[in-house]
Amino acid sequence: MTLRPRRTPSPDTLALLASRRSVAAAGLQAPGPNAEETQRLLTLAARVPDHGMLTPWRFILIEGTARAEIGALLAQAYRANNPQMPEEKREKFAAIMGRLFPAPLAVVVVSRPVAGSAIPGFEQELSAGAVCMNLLTGATAMGFDGIWVTGWAATHKAALAILGVGEGERVAGIVHIGTASEAPADRPRPDVAALATRWSPPG
Ligand SMILES: Cc1cc2nc3c(=O)[nH]c(=O)nc-3n(C[C@H](O)[C@H](O)[C@H](O)COP(=O)(O)O)c2cc1C
């Protein structure tokens, strides 16, 4: 039997993984992915490990005029759901909700674990997390920038109804994609040597 040789390493992929940085949504401008690039990006995002092949996730795309429309609804819902908050503070956060989608494209990754499956729900949710990461890496490989966020709009019941997230579903992430107005500086990274141990038999 001939063994398949090791695949050729991809220095470009390694360089991308070693340098990718998130960019705050407010710093993401046009250009974003066009229709064809978006389709390709979703195809890349969907290529994740998925125990049991359950496809326990789906996408909601927010782009164009929908960004301002949904922002207005979220701002309204934020006000309505925080009546006890001092007005100034409430208006500050409502305004943030109003501008929540500044990037050309936002992809809401919805986790929808299959109930009653032999595959634990946690594993299905991890698959949705992998989708978010693939989106971010794929967008970076296409030359775009992005960030994976959550927050009030991804967790509050009223916000979920506006997004179109149903019963039994959760937002794994909102991935904003566009072009950074400024190259981001890096942030401190974990010391992986301090985090890794080599297993030895107990006792
Ligand atoms: C599930 C999840 C939710 C997150 N939610 C937010 C968020 O709501 N706001 C935020 O600023 N960063 C959030 N982050 C962190 C950013 O995605 C990102 O990790 C951080 O900005 C560091 O960027 P880096 O990708 O360059 O390490 C979240 C990360 C994860 C994994």
Structure description:
By secondary structure, the chain is of the alpha+beta class. It has a domain of 122 residues: NADH Oxidase. The protein is 41% helix and 16% strand. The chain contains eight helices and five strands. Strands 1, 2, 3, 4 and 5 form a five-stranded antiparallel β-sheet that branches. Helix 2 crosses helix 5, helix 3 packs antiparallel against helix 4 and helix 3 runs antiparallel to helix 7. The longest helix is centred in the middle third of the chain and has 21 residues. The radius of gyration is 20 Å and the shape is globular. The N and C termini lie far apart (42 Å). The mean pLDDT is 97. The site of flavin mononucleotide (FMN) has 9 residues, from strand 4. The site of flavin mononucleotide has 9 residues, from strand 4.
Note the main sheet.
Answer: 5 strands, antiparallel
Nearest-integer average pLDDT: 97
Radius of gyration, CA atoms, in whole angstroms: 20 Å
Q: What is the molecular shape?
A: globular
Question: Treating each run of at least 4 consecutive H or I residues as one helix, how many helices?
Answer: 8
The CATH architecture of the domain at 23-65 and 102-180 would be 3-Layer(aba) Sandwich
Order of helices and strands: HEHEHHEHEHHEH
Number of strands: 5
CATH T-level topology of the domain at 23-65 and 102-180: NADH Oxidase
Structural class: alpha+beta
Low-confidence stretches: none
Percent strand equals 15-25%
Q: What small molecules accompany the polymer chains?
A: flavin mononucleotide
Helix content: 40-55%
The top level CATH class name of the domain at 23-65 and 102-180: Alpha Beta
Output the CATH homologous superfamily of the domain at 23-65 and 102-180.
Answer: NADH Oxidase
State the end-to-end CA separation: 42 Å
